[in-house]
Each structure stands twice: as C-alpha cells, then as structure tokens.
Amino acid sequence: MMSTSDVKYLVIHCSATRSNQDYTATQLRRDHLARGFRKIGYHFYSRRNGEMTQHRMLMEVGAHARPYNHCSIGICYEGGLDENGVPCDTRTKRQTERMVDLLKNLHALFPNARIVGHRDLPGTTPKDCPCLNAQKVFGWIEEE
C-alpha cells in the first residue's frame, strides 16, 4: 500500500482501442489477466459514454507504468485510436468531463502529484499512450 505522500504522479493512459469499437471493463480485465496481472492494472477506467469505474483501491499499488507504479495513480480512458487504428485523442465530451472531475478530486487528495501521460515518464516502454499531451490538456488542474 502507498501513503498519500508517496503519490507523485496521476498517470493518464488510453486503452489503445479504436474509437468506433466498444472496449468494456470486462474486456480490459480479460486482457490484463491474460498479460499476467491479478486484476486490472489501472485504478480508474473512463468509458466513452462517461461511465467511470474503479479497479484498484486508491492507495493500492497499480500495474500500469513500471517503474512508477509505487508512486502513481493510473487513469485509463477508452480509445486512443481513430477508426483506422491511428493514434489520436479520441476522448468524448462526457468522458473528458468525468476525467476532469476525477483529476480534480485526486489532485485535492494529492496536491503535489503531477498530471502526466504514460509516454511522459522516463524509463517506461516507449509508446504514444495516452495519444494526447496530458499536461496541455489537464495541467491547468494543478494550478487551481
């Protein structure tokens, strides 16, 4: 378990799925179990319809951005690829609203945590995830 002072990052991820195809939490769970995780690696999952689900306890170490799992909260949004499979920001309005609400609440709990994209963390697997500039899109929350 982490302590509140351990949380240094609120890490945004995308599911790397096409914007015209559903990717449910059940599918996410199946895929994470197939990769050897004991459950979904992210703390939160935001669906295109705005549904937000929690998959790890807040202070539980996640499995989403090695070697930063011990000091971060993982937030994944459904999408990240356009209909042709090209990486891009596919967030819906409702999805974005729910993510902003969540990030505001998390930042209030962890005021020193930085909002970053998975791709922004040095030493992680190089990838486009979350297919957006997390600091540009959500960094204003750190200033409130």
Key terms:
5-stranded mixed beta sheet; 144 residues; alpha/beta; 7 strands; two-stranded parallel ribbon
Describe the protein's topology.
Blueprint: E1 9-14, E2 17-18, H1 25-34, E3 44-46, E4 52-54, E5 72-77, E6 80-81, H2 93-109, E7 114-117, H3 134-138, H4 140-143
Parallel strand pairs: 1-5, 1-7, 2-6, 3-5
Antiparallel strand pairs: 3-4
Tell me about the biggest sheet? 5 strands, mixed
> Helix and strand succession?
EEHEEEEHEHH
- Taking the alpha carbons of the first and last residues, their distance comes to 28 Å
> How many separate helices?
4
| Morphology | globular
The helicity comes to 25-40%
At a glance:
The protein is α/β, with parallel strands linked by helices and 144 residues long.
Structure, described:
The protein is α/β, with parallel strands linked by helices and 144 residues long. Helices cover 25% and strands 18% of the residues. The chain contains four helices and seven strands. The protein has helices at 25-34, 93-109, 134-138, 140-143; strands at residues 9-14, 17-18, 44-46, 52-54, 72-77, 80-81, 114-117.
